[in-house]
Amino acid sequence: MKRFNNLNNLTGWLVFTVAFATYSITVERTASFWDCAEFIAAAFKLEVPHPPGAPFFLLIGRIFSLLALGDLSQVAYWINMVSVLSSAFTILFLFWTITLLTKKIVAGPDSIPSPADTFLIMGAGVVGALAYTWSDSFWFSAVEAEVYAMSSFFTAIVIWAVFKWEQMEDPAAANRWLVFISYLIGLSIGVHLLNLVTIPALALVFYLKKYPKPGVVGGLIALGTGMVILTVINTGIIPGLPEMAGKFEIFFVNTLDLPYNSGVLFFIILFLGSLVWGIRFSHLRGMPGLNTTLLCLAFILTGYTSYLMVLVRSGYNPPINENSPDDVLSFVYYLKREQYGNRPLLYGPSYVARPTGLKKLSPVYRKKDGKYAIIDYRQEYEYAPGSSMLLPRMYSSQPGHPELYQSMTGLADGQKPTMVQNLSFLFSYQMGTMYWRYFLWNFSGRMGDAQGAGTLLPWDAFKAFPTSISAGKAHDNYFMLPLLLGIAGLLLLYFHQKKDLIVLAMLFVLTGIGLVVYLNSPPTEPRERDYIYVGSFYVFCIWIGMGVVACTQAFSRVLKQKGIRAITATALCLGVPMLMGIKGWDNHDRRNRFHSVDFARNLLSSCAPNAILFTGADTDTFPLWYVQEVEGFRTDVRVCVQTFMGADWYIRQLRRKINRSDALPMTLEMANYITGKNDIVPFYEIPGVKSGINLNEYLQLIKQDNKALQVPLTSGDMTSVLPSSVLFLPVNTAEVDSMKIVKKDLQPFIGNAMYWTIGNKDLYKGDLVMLDIIATNNWKRPIYFSSTMGKSNHLGLTEYMQLEGYAYRLLPARVEGAQDGYVNTDIMFNNMMNKMAWRELNNKDTYYDDTYRGAPIVTARMSFLRLAEQLVNEKRIAEARQVAERAIAVMPDDTIPYDQASAGFTGIFFDINERKKALQLADTMARRSDENLRWARQNPDSSIIDVNADLFILQSIVRSCRHAGEDAAAEEYERIFKKHLVAFNYIR
């Protein structure tokens, strides 16, 4: 047995080495888009990221960041290596789990395996572990600084530890393993809560070990017990203990007149004292069950203490301090992720239900004058009887979602879904599109990386795909080989080890379908969510490993010698993960990808010194935080996140200096911005100011809570209103002239006041904050809007916006009709040509997924296009040629395929008398769009081709050729264009 254990350990570490080498080679060298950039910045300075945070991940990331040895450009790489190492250890424990379980089948749990059996067990472990190593979703998370790699590690080591505990005969040793498992679960809370989903299945392992003759009723009781434990940890411990401490705190401070934190301190002493007493009492009385339970609780709490970092660091007001959870009450809000709202799970309204009122819930407290004052109440909507339904799946009434529900189910506008339609959405979209599609990506094949990409089956290898799909690096067909091998392993367990099958199947369901039901996805997501379900893919790879044993048994009639069968089956099955690795390498290799950081730098480089920059959501903002907080680039620019600006904690942050950026100017006080105050300012037109209201005077009226500007709500409270759809802001023209901020050609467009239509819609608090900053600033600091923000966030000020790169500068000069702003060619040319970078976008060996090809690339190309167009209009042809050629050179078609923005360059090249280049560009794009549209007509169920985008490209090319007098080319492309218009029923 010692020889087997040594070989098992050695082989496991060899597999670990393969995984570590894979991820080390393909890891991203800098910060990726989405949450990665935020986590890197937060880890580097131990700041507070979006709730519920990941403090243990941040602490480990901080340690790894020190390996950069002061080179700030290497900090992201070393924090990315946390995921690399975590993922490699995940593979190690997966290997040991597979060999542990396979040994039961091949040789028995207590037997010494023969050399042939040993080889087979090692082969099963290698095949299963490498299949997960090179699986699409896990590999994606393994090479970036996200929490999912470390979360997978905790899932892997907990599953391994539970199966090790199962084999322990000595009760004392077994109890130590339970305490160890509890500590791991506690630590995992500080990474991600996904690991908790495994608890019910682990309770089932406990039952199957304690009761050699299990029954259905006992199994259900065990699962129910596991669900109770999960609920206790997820609700009773994680937010529950801080919530209880908060109640003590309020009582001690508000009732007993004691200082802040006295109630928290008393609760901690009381709770920990009770826990210590219980552990000692159970030990002295010889109660091992109670003693082990209390020790497990103690070690869960020990792991959970990583969350103290959130409280401590928030108290120092770091630049990234989301929700400002610096006291126990705000900490509970942070843990519960209350800013994101709730999704109904078992009972709730459908998307057509309309609220009939608001119900007050628990109060919201803030510190004030040595007490905790109630500033608002948490609320939830009330609905008319009959509006709600069981297991509501079609619930979201967010803009655009009702229309998607209707298109998916055929419901009429306003029609309430039946339970059949509700469940149909669950099975077809939530389980089908949002789970099984991801599952097949990993074990059958993936059509591409565009949002909504479908799966590939073996016979798809014989289908003709457009080049835009077939030539894509993410077009990977595994011919269902991993799927079939996993099914073979599942069947092996069914016939030989049903207990383990039940446990693994429960793990598979809980981390897959169970999460689907719990998360209750809306009809669309901002990005693919396959990384959530890697726990179920992990379990399936255990079955893939066991598929090697199934293949060995299948060869028994052909190959009589046991050793030969084991070698043959292992060699053949090893080809499955090898296929996955070879196919997946090019679309997981991120070595030369830098544009997430370049995009952020380019956006900041578009701004003048000491600027205020309004940005949109995560992809906009997180890279900016990274380059400012980690690399120290342009910290004079104050990044204002529009999605946060309605929160009082964020407004407080705007009102203080951060890095080199001074506090933002505001007229309104925090009393006007506290939670519950001016959350929504309804539009209520007052005849006397219908023609417009002075923004400065309006802000003063709100500041004073002036009754002339207020109307009663149904609750009886008074609220300020927006009395006019037109706002104006006086302009001191002499002062503006002295600032030299307006181009000489535009000075005639400066008036004594700015007038604009904000619209007859309600203002949200974030809109009010933006208006406050704009008015109070009085042109002292440059104000910019990121070009990636939608026009709806421009507050109607578009005609006053000057494009200077990736951002629009707000100026008191109005160019009437400039619905996309106007271009300052001098500033923008200098910014685009001299200050910005697009590293490796022309490297055809570098992989750019859908995120990079979306807003970042479109922003770059549109900026080049707007600049070139304006230079042509100003007859500056030589400069326009430089811009157009730079755009094509840094983002060529063979690396970043031409898109809708690129179509405009056809006309630019005609205008600068580069007709050959224009026709080449037109032909390349037209042929590709024609091919895409022909395929889309033949495959109407696929959404991977954006039909409207390709039609737009064709239309743009036709117009450019017509305008340039290239009638032959225009006729040819117009024929293609009209053919597809008819085919897609755009014209009849």
Question: Can you summarize this structure?
Answer:
The chain is α/β, with parallel strands linked by helices and 988 residues long.
Notes on the protein architecture:
A hairpin with a 2-residue loop joins strand 2 and strand 3 (371-383). The mean pLDDT is 90. The radius of gyration is 31 Å and the shape is globular. The strands form seven sheets. The protein has a six-stranded mixed β-sheet with strand order 8-7-16-18-17-19. It is 55% helix and 8% strand. It starts with a helix and ends in a 5-residue tail after the last helix. The relative contact order is 0.08. The protein has 988 residues and is α/β, with parallel strands linked by helices.
Which features characterize this protein?
six-stranded mixed β-sheet, 19 strands, 55% helix, alpha/beta, 988 residues, three-stranded mixed β-sheet, 37 helices
Strand order of the largest sheet: 8-7-16-18-17-19
The averaged pLDDT comes out at 90
Q: Give the helix tally.
A: 37
How many strands, what sense, and barrel or not for the largest sheet?
Answer: 6 strands, mixed
Give the amount of beta strand, in percent.
5-15%
